[in-house]
Design goal:
Strand content: 15-25%
Low-confidence stretches: none
Distance between the termini: 102 Å
Number of helices: 23
Helix content: 25-40%
Strand order of the largest sheet: 7-6-14-13-12
Shape: elongated
Radius of gyration: 39 Å
CATH class of the largest domain: Mainly Alpha
Mean pLDDT: 86
């Protein structure tokens, strides 16, 4: 009774608790990308009994323990036979261990070559049978059985030896695996080897089990060390961030990964003479935010290019790839619409003097053209005008890591003044494709789609920004080729010093980002976005579209958006009047976009005999009506500098007095100092305060006053330098037609 009580009081022995299993990283089709080593340096893949081939289960039971379902953990007949042989011959001719006993030895690390060890094994086996079902015990054994080298369990063995799951093992392969655990050191399958010992053991299996047919004894063994890593950087990221579990079904599409990898390999081979040796790429489905393909470097195993660095997660200067988001914010804040005229001209922002990539200036330029041609000065000017949010605040709200305060970056952010990751860029461009909503990237297939999206810009601004990006011509294609192809909305970027070349595109249901550069920051004059990264980007797009052709459809907004398409004056970008000779259609956001009637084209009276302008028809001359362009002085100066002729009105007749002149046209508009109330630092060492105003066409001179004190005169399109004492002033700009405007200024 006491022994029975002790027996019943024994604790339940653990089955697989505490056993570490490998992690299997799978692509979206369920194919293995990587099997990791366990903490004890084993390949041990957890495989439920239902996922193990019946042929493998049957082969194992028939070879190891054909009475498994009938004994209580110990086969008394086999045990007595083994004991008899040991007593009278000094050795056993057949093993007495059942599968349960073998599991006990493996699980509890028993030494069973001694009588005491064997007795402990028997006790553990009976205890296992008392607490667990036959299926549970068999499942545990098949997950712990040794299959040679550091391979344990049928899951790892079938994957490593036959490159397939345990569920797909054939009959011959099942027999081959079933004979290995009896002698795992000698019978481990060798890739490319004859595997004679396994073959002999397999033949013994057929004879021992009285199998009627003997299948061909051939094996497709595959050594794990020879297996090429697929999507190495992607898998590494998954393993670093994986949730608990032994299997991760990822979003990676192996077919798309192969397309991108081949394009990178070929491109590097073709451009190595240009010093292009490394590249990174990221492809996502912006509808689901799934990462479909990822290339962290052109060669993971190449130490010379630091190939194990993940280029999709390493912060780099993005060049001009962030400019579209300046325009999106400007659209939202009512600063521009696509045809708004911007100024591409020398501009000073405090101590910052931005230049264009070509070190030239184009003068007045439409907003859409400024973005398409990646002009720096208009982008910086717009960024300087943004508020609530500023561009810095926008990036912070998008979870872009900016470790320094806004003052550190200043207005250089749109030109690549802060480092961002390729993942950042992909998320931001996906937000444009998703109506302005930012969502996190997804890498695990069964994870729910995040509902915690962040509204970055309005869907109207997102659509218009993409529409402007769609006007950027693809390299090497004619206009007719472009019209016959599905649209691509894309942007390039080149970092300062030619260290990084970028190209990012939204097309079909994808966002694709490409980077060319060196991880050590080495410069290369070839690292230009349009000539280094864009060709690879479009090779990838062509490869993807060859696999999945896209339809050629116009880029139209959803009907619920607050957008209207109307006619604009082609010259001024404003709503046309009857005097505007050239018109074009474009989108604008009602109630937001800065829309006004064109005041550039105006009808004037011209004396038929002299060709001079008359202020009014007094009946004394023969007059005709003609349309001319009236530009602010600063834009007119830019046109002149760019060599673009404009149809300007002729001078007034000498008999027209100033009183009549002052009644028409616009008064000067003071734009320096920039604000209604400006606080400046004035000291003996400073050159002074710059004064500038926009004037009406025909104005030649500006006269400046501070209160009643005359400060000086200058040509209409020039600046006047004023060095005042600190104080409060009423600043007045008076043109030579008698029109004036004023601004209050505080100087300290």
């Amino acid at each position: 009774m006491t022994l029975a009580a002790v027996w019943l009081a024994l604790p339940k022995p653990p089955l697989l608790e505490g056993i570490d299993f490998s992690t299997r990283v799978l692509d979206r089709n369920g194919k293995i990308l990587r099997v990791t080593l366990t903490a004890d340096q084993k390949y041990r893949v957890w495989t439920p009994l239902k996922d193990i081939s019946p042929a493998l289960i049957d082969a194992t039971l028939r070879f190891e323990d054909k009475y498994y379902d009938k004994h209580p953990g110990v086969n008394p007949v086999s045990l007595l036979r083994a004991t008899w042989n040991l007593a009278f011959s000094g050795r056993t001719r057949a093993g007495a261990s059942t599968i349960t006993m073998q599991l006990a030895r493996l699980r509890y690390h028993l030494r069973t070559r001694t009588v005491a060890g064997k007795l402990r094994q028997i006790v553990y086996a009976i205890e296992l049978e008392r607490h667990y079902s036959k299926a549970q015990i068999l499942e545990a054994y098949l997950n712990l059985a040794p299959y040679g080298r550091n391979i344990e369990g049928v899951g790892a063995a079938s994957e490593i030896y036959f490159s397939k799951s345990a569920a797909r093992v054939t009959g011959a392969e099942a027999v081959a695996l079933s004979v290995i655990p009896q002698s795992p050191t000698r019978r481990a399958l060798i890739a490319g080897g004859e595997n004679e010992r396994v073959t002999n053991a397999q033949q013994h299996w057929y004879s021992r089990t009285n199998a009627r047919e003997t299948p061909a004894l051939t094996f497709r063994a595959e050594a794990r060390t020879r297996r090429q890593l697929t999507a190495a950087h992607f898998v590494q990221q998954i393993l670093e961030s994986k949730a608990a579990g032994t299997e991760v079904l990822t979003t990676l599409d192996p077919a798309l990964q192969e397309i991108l990898e081949k394009r990178v390999t070929d491109y590097i081979a073709q451009n190595r003479e240009r010093g292009i040796e490394n590249a990174a790429a990221l492809l996502i489905d912006f509808k689901t935010m799934e990462v479909l393909a990822k290339i962290g470097s052109s060669d993971f195993s190449n130490a010379e290019i630091h190939g194990q660095v993940d280029g999709t997660r390493r912060p780099r200067s993005p060049g001009s790839t962030l400019k579209p988001f300046v325009y999106a914010l400007a659209l939202d804040q009512g600063r521009i619409h696509p045809l708004t005229l911007l100024k591409d001209a020398p501009h000073t922002f405090g101590d910052y003097n931005p230049e264009n990539f070509d070190r030239d200036f184009l003068g007045p330029i439409r907003a859409s053209d400024a973005l398409a041609r990646s002009r720096n000065v208009p982008a910086v000017t717009l960024a300087s005008e943004l508020s609530h949010p500023t561009f810095y605040e926008f990036l912070r709200s998008a979870d872009v890591a900016l470790p320094k305060p806004a003052s550190f970056y200043g207005l250089s952010l749109p030109l690549g003044g802060a480092e961002v990751t390729m993942e950042d860029l992909a998320r931001l461009y996906a937000a444009l494709a998703n109506g302005g909503r930012l969502q996190p990237l997804r890498r695990v297939l069964n994870e729910p789609i995040s509902k915690n999206s962040v509204r970055l810009v309005s869907p109207e601004a997102a659509f218009l920004t993409l529409d402007m990006l769609g006007q950027i011509p693809r390299p090497g294609l004619t206009n007719s080729d472009v019209s016959r192809s599905a649209p691509v909305f894309w942007k390039t970027g080149t970092s300062h010093g030619f260290r990084d070349a970028w190209s990012v595109a939204v097309f079909d249901h994808y966002v694709l980002a490409v980077w060319i550069g060196n991880f050590d920051g080495k410069r290369n004059a070839s690292f230009i976005g349009r000539t280094a990264a864009a060709p690879l980007l479009f090779q990838m797009i062509d490869g993807l579209r060859a696999r999945e052709p896209s339809r050629v459809e116009p880029h139209l907004p959803p009907p619920e958006l607050n957008l209207k398409r109307v006619e604009f004056c082609s010259v001024s970008g404003q709503l046309p009047t009857s005097f505007c000779p050239h018109r074009t259609e474009s989108w604008f956001i009602p109630g937001i976009s800065p829309i006004a009637t064109c005041d550039v084209h105006r009808e004037v009276l011209v004396d038929a005999s002299t060709g001079l302008r008359a202020a009014q028809d007094d009946g004394t001359r023969t007059l005709k009506r003609e349309v001319y362009e009236f530009w602010p002085s600063d834009l007119l100066a830019l046109f002149e500098r760019a060599g673009v002729p404009r149809k300007l009105p002729p001078p007034f007749l000498p008999t027209v007095d100033n009183e009549l002149l002052s009644r028409g046209g616009h008064a000067p508009k003071i734009n320096l100092p920039a604000n209604e109330m400006t606080v400046s630092q004035v000291s003996a060492s400073t050159a002074g305060i710059l004064l500038r105003a926009e004037t009406e066409t025909g104005v030649r001179k500006l006269y400046w006053f501070a209160d009643k004190t005359f400060l000086g005169a200058c040509d209409a399109h020039q600046v006047l330098c004023w060095k005042p004492a600190p104080g409060v002033y009423q600043l007045i700009a008076l043109d030579d037609h008698g029109r004036s405007s004023s601004r209050s200024v505080i100087l300290r």
